[in-house]
Design brief:
alpha/beta, Maf protein, Rossmann fold, 2 domains, six-stranded mixed sheet, 19% strand, globular
């Protein structure tokens, strides 16, 4: 199963003017625009193209905080999902209350809202925003909803506002015309823009029109299309916004294929957490633990297999782990991404084999400073790497970060990073886990060898058996 649709060709790209006019000329659509911050950038398009009277019931901006609180209730922050949801719920319900009896049989009502922090005068703030639409796909229909989080990357406030207006028009047009094909809707969000101007790092579909949508697949779609470098979802399958999830927390990441999650994966996380949580700057703080899948890993066979992706997501979820999907194959890029959202300590745990790969210079030929630049960027914020030992199945030798074979010309660099605490060995591991390799477990599942069940957590085994994942076949 792949993202591309065999039945529906990709529609031609429409410019923003045409999209806004299409919405205005659709006699079924009628609703409210409520925008906080960055001006009335979205609704301006619908006024500008003409025929807006048939679409716009009300346009407003509760720019003053006290005015906003009086309308939507108090909020801890004004640019957050909580505030956006309050705006959507309030404005949509108000439309239904006032207009449903008068024109409900022929009108599909909607409420569009955004709350945005564009570049301030001094250029010191985070430029981001929440945007969403709550709507009826058909008159008298139950409600449906799309919420997105955007990061504005232009250097000038005017350009950020322009980009915001275009994204808003794309979202509204997509909600009305592509709700039955959400993958095409996601594709169309940056029509008229580029990923150098806008990043969309979260999208959440809900309601009657999207009852069959798996938001984990939509998160994957954002990364695959390059709309963001990474996306997240919780163990419950709910999409997460990274800046809110990681906000002011120490972070521990384990990268892997997780085909499937094995006992060794959980032991690696546990050991790293035991060490990491004892650091003076981390002690007594809530450490966020995340399992990360890279696009390189998901595309290892050429294209993304959706069933394989959902299998991995489900086994990670069964362990209660949030999942990060990233396009950051190089660890220094992952570190830079995480540093964007927290000033607390960051740690990555990996096996000794992965550490050897980390010192392979072929991965840094694209950097002007080569491997030195890579490590300078990776460790600049005191990042920690915790190394789990590797048992050589042929020789029986235990490979740790103390006896790891490093090229002579890189040995001094390696020792320096180790001596300053950037690279540390894990000692409190379970020796039984050293014999477990996911590729071996995967092969046993395919071969019908039931010994695989002792190599994975019981919750993982239950999911694999229940859903016949990884080519499992009941006896």
């Amino acid at each position: 199963m792949h993202f591309s649709s065999a039945t529906s060709p990709t529609p031609p790209t429409l410019d923003t003017h045409k999209k806004a006019l299409d919405v205005n000329l659709d006699a079924r659509r009628y609703g409210t625009f409520a925008e906080i911050g960055a001006g009335q950038e979205v609704v301006r398009w619908f006024f500008r193209v003409g025929a807006g009277a048939g679409t716009i019931a009300k346009s407003m901006s509760a720019y003053d905080m006290k005015v906003s609180d009086a309308i939507y209730g108090r909020a801890s922050r004004y640019v957050c999902r909580e505030r956006l949801q309050a705006m959507l719920d309030y404005e949509h319900e108000l439309n239904l209350e006032r207009l449903r009896d008068v024109r409900g049989d022929t009108t599909a009502f909607f409420a569009f809202a955004d709350t945005v922090s564009a570049r301030n005068y001094h250029g010191t703030n985070e430029c981001h925003g929440w945007m969403g639409i709550k709507f009826q796909a058909h008159p008298r229909d139950e409600d449906s909803e799309i919420i997105i989080h955007v990061r504005m990357l232009d250097d000038e406030a005017a350009l950020q506002q322009e980009a915001l207006g275009i994204v808003g028009v794309n979202l509204i047009h997509g909600a009305f015309n592509l709700y039955h094909e959400p993958e095409l809707l996601v594709n169309a969000l940056l029509d008229g823009l580029s990923t150098s101007r806008i990043e969309i790092d979260m999208i959440d579909f809900s309601g009657i029109a999207f009852r069959h949508v798996d938001n984990r697949l939509m998160s994957l779609k954002l990364v695959e299309l390059g709309l963001t470098g990474a996306a997240m979802f919780s163990a419950a399958g709910e999409v997460l916004q990274p800046s809110e999830f990681f906000y002011r927390k120490p972070i521990l990441v384990e990268r892997g294929s997780f085909r499937p999650v094995c006992n060794v994966n959980l032991d690696m996380l546990k050991c790293a957490h035991d060490e990491f949580s004892q650091l003076p700057n981390v002690k007594d703080k809530e450490v966020v633990q995340v399992m990360e899948l890279t696009m390189n890993n998901l595309k290892s066979t050429g294209s993304i297999d959706m069933r394989d992706f959902l299998a991995r997501a489900d086994v990670m979820a069964s362990c209660g782990m949030p999942v990060l999907i990233s396009d950051y194959f190089q660890y220094f890029r992952l570190a830079a991404y995480l540093s964007r959202y927290t000033k607390e300590n960051i740690a990555i745990t990996m096996g000794a084999g992965s550490l050897m790969d980390l010192f392979d210079e072929q991965y840094y030929t694209g950097l002007q400073g080569g491997i030195l630049e890579s490590f300078g960027r990776l460790f600049k914020n005191d990042l920690k790497i915790y190394v789990y030992p590797l048992l050589d199945s042929e020789t029986g030798e235990l490979i740790t970060c103390d006896n790891l074979e490093i090229k002579p010309e890189l040995k001094n660099l390696y020792n320096y990073l180790k001596d300053r605490g950037g690279i540390s060995a894990l000692h409190n591991y379970d020796p039984e886990c050293l014999k477990i390799f996911s590729r071996d477990v995967l092969q046993r599942i395919k071969n019908g060898d039931s010994t695989w069940e002792s190599m994975v957590p019981s919750c993982v085994a239950a999911v694999i058996r229940e859903k016949n994942y990884f080519a499992f076949r009941p006896a």
